Amino acid sequence: MLEDTKYHYLENGIRLIFMPTEKFKTISMGLFVHQDLTPERAAYNALLPSVLEQGSSDYPDYLSLQQKLESLYGADVATDIVKSGERHILAFTMETAHDRYLGENGRLLAEGISVLGSVIGNPLVENNAFREDYVRQEKNQLIKDIRAILNDKVSYATERCLALMCAEENFGVFKLGRIEDYEQIDPAGLYDYYQILFNRNPIDFYVIGDLDEKIVRETADKIFAFPRNGETLELSGTEIMRPVEKIKFHEEEMAINQSKLVMGYRTYTSYQDDLYCALLVYSGILGGFPHSKLFMNVREEAGLAYYIHSRLEKHKGLMVISAGINYEERDKAREIIEQQLADMAEGNISDVELDNTKQGLVNQLRSRQDSPSQLISFHLDSSVGGKTYTIEELAAGIESVGLEELKAVADRVKLDTVYLLRPREGGSM
Amino acid sequence: MTENCRLIENRELQETLYHFRVEPGMDLYVLPRPGYQKKYAVFSTRFGSIDNCFRVEPEQEYTKLPDGVAHFLEHKLFEDERGNVFDRFAALGASANAFTSFTQTSYLFSCTANFEQNLQHLLDFVQEPYFTEKTVEKEQGIIGQEIKMYEDHPHWRVFFNLLEGLYCEHPVRNDIAGTIESISRITPDLLYRCYNNFYHPSNMALFVVGDLVPEQVGRQVEENLSARNYKTMGAIVRQYPGEPDKINRKRTVQELVVSEPILLLGFKDMVAGNLQGREKMRREILMELLLDILFGSSEELYNNLYREDLIDENFDAEYTAEINYGHTMIGGETRDPDQLYHRIMEAIAGINKKGISEEQFERHRRKILGGYIRRFNSLEFIANNFLALRFKGADLFQLPSILHEVKREEILAMVEENMDPDRHAVSIIAPENQ
């Protein structure tokens, strides 16, 4: 179905990506503004979508915007900030039920896109600044969100490990920035930033659904007609070659019951790399599935953990292993984990492991075509990663991976940081 | 078409559901979704964490279970004489999983290839138990870690602390996984005893969805079951303790490592258990409308609370009507749980006087209808929710028709029955002093 994707550039350089399909009950769209992830700009990037979502010239407050969306059968407008490699993406999405199920005959596309267009392109501005109260309120909410990473101990431990591992790189910047960065942002400065960003940065606009291509193009041309100065900014890539000088170890105490072990590795393999598919298979065999080495050995054999897995940050080329364990068993757990990596490097990989992992990866990949948001995020990867694969190209790449390529990946993989979040006062209950 | 197949047409969604009645008494539902890559199947039994005391006709004596057996059994079915069940799904390129709730246990897979073999595998492993002393003992360690993980989870804790506050006797107050102590009492014999009764096909249902041919699925399931020569089984009689009108504990506060307090406010109701099938679902829809009108993001209260920094965008209100219990829960993270509590109670007390306008009612009704249609993009949503409602005697496909028939006047009548101030409790997670 991605082979069916239609591209069209609006006059101001925004790229329209339209995926026609009859299978969904919805019309889905998303506008994504690409920016480099940097410590100076992270808080601006996170704050901007939140402020815009509070209201526009047409719907001056959140209440009137929400009431309008409700009358469109609960259409959902949402904003987000996404960190993908060292790219920071401002996301504005809209989803509505398709007219066909409501007897509305085309109104929902036209009205839905115009509400989204209003939020993005027609903000509430007074004296060349966003409204002071909205900015203050959203700063406060985002500062709370930053503090709230603490609440989910599993993701907290992962974030801490990555931050320590990449402290000297832009990737070490948290996606919402730092609390102190918010203090310096004022409503006029944020509005300036908005104008600069929308004037020059790359923007992708996605539409997915059973719609007429001509109508989609005409509507997008009309709604997102704001002027841009012609030349689209060239963004920096993601740094993936940083060497490991010395393995870092960190332990942190907290009043919790279960220890969280997180091990961060560098794979030196990017999305464009010829070994990218081999990396997917490598991490899959190691810890991507219930049949993987980590699950089988740490959980099923040793009974040390309930969750244990490896995950990739595909654009930064990082691999992260996470497990929830008893503090007393930390050394044993690490030993078993490291043994699995050693087995990978020595090529102790059975045909069954290899084959099951390939099938599992291909299954995950093909399943992405059944969700509009997954289709968008798959396509966004090509923008961030600088290489476009179709789903079937990636599937074929995965299927062709052999032991030699896996060995080549294993030779690249280096442990960088070991992070342990442990219960206070020497041990769990 | 076999004679034991019935077609259920839904005009709003433009879907046709195939319902097979498979001997010895199992319901099979097949929903074709052309164009989807993925096929999804979920096989569920009416055995959840609250089913902890039962007998099977004509027995007289009840079996009392330690907490956490349904969930433990779910884990253990994934292992058999040939080893790990996940491996065989993996060999067929499928992704498999399972979950246990208060009222049911479900086994599922999704795949984009080898559907027939995967379905066969699902049917086989769920119908072929294998429990030994050794495997039971190992699982106690793994589930012990699962329980510990949830102990550190503030939103899970605030939820169970509230259930404990609301209910004096009903087993919904106990954690689904049980406790480290209760699962230490689980033995292979006990698992077999539960298995042999709750996993009889007449206590189960299967939902399959994707780009497939219903008759083929029907035939495959019929053949799989008929080869097993099931005997008809006596009715399962579940015993639940009588739940008094009053609540157990007004206020529960637990300290955990959190950035901000969490408030969850709940009302126990005494009506859900008396409502049958469609009426139960109707009540859920009326309550969804009421809660959305009271607390939804398109209403004044939500926007005022947000501006005053008393809530964030995760603030939520939800109603649950189960087989024999029901409750409403409202809350989220807040800097000031006491103030938020008063504002919520004030809004509930004032709604009758304030009333509900026709415009408001229509807007919220549209929102629910649109949200329902949108969720039909997800095969997992359809299958899981269809069976959950089916086990309560209701039908997911009837939502649009119920939504069309409910009247504005009915909504306010819900306040008295479902949100009685005499039956409310509060659960708070307070930040631990570091």
Report on this structure:
- The complex is a heterodimer of chains A (429) and B (434).
- By secondary structure, chain A is of the alpha+beta class.
- Chain A has 2 domains: 222 residues, Metalloenzyme, LuxS/M16 peptidase-like (Cytochrome Bc1 Complex, Chain A, domain 1), CATH 3.30.830; 176 residues, Metalloenzyme, LuxS/M16 peptidase-like (Cytochrome Bc1 Complex, Chain A, domain 1).
- Chain A contains 15 helices and 13 strands.
- In chain A, strands 1-2-8-3-5-4 form a 6-stranded mixed beta sheet, with helices on both faces. A 5-stranded mixed beta sheet of chain A has the order 9-13-10-12-11, sandwiched between helices. A two-stranded antiparallel ribbon of chain A has the order 6-7.
- In chain A, strand 6 and strand 7 form a beta hairpin.
- In chain A, helix 9 packs across helix 12, helix 10 packs antiparallel against helix 11 and helix 12 packs antiparallel against helix 14.
- The longest helix of chain A is centred in the C-terminal third of the chain and has 17 residues.
- The mean pLDDT of chain A is 95.
- Chain B has 434 residues and is an alpha+beta fold.
- Chain B folds into 2 domains: 234 residues, Cytochrome Bc1 Complex, Chain A, domain 1 (2-Layer Sandwich); 181 residues, 2-Layer Sandwich (Cytochrome Bc1 Complex, Chain A, domain 1), CATH 3.30.830.10.
- In chain B, 42% of the residues lie in helices and 22% in strands.
- Chain B is built from 15 helices and 17 strands.
- The model of chain B has no long low-confidence stretch (mean pLDDT 96).
- The chains are: A alpha+beta (429), B alpha+beta (434).
- At the A-B interface, helix 2, strand 5, helix 4, helix 10 and helix 12 of A face helix 2, helix 4, helix 10 and helix 12 of B.
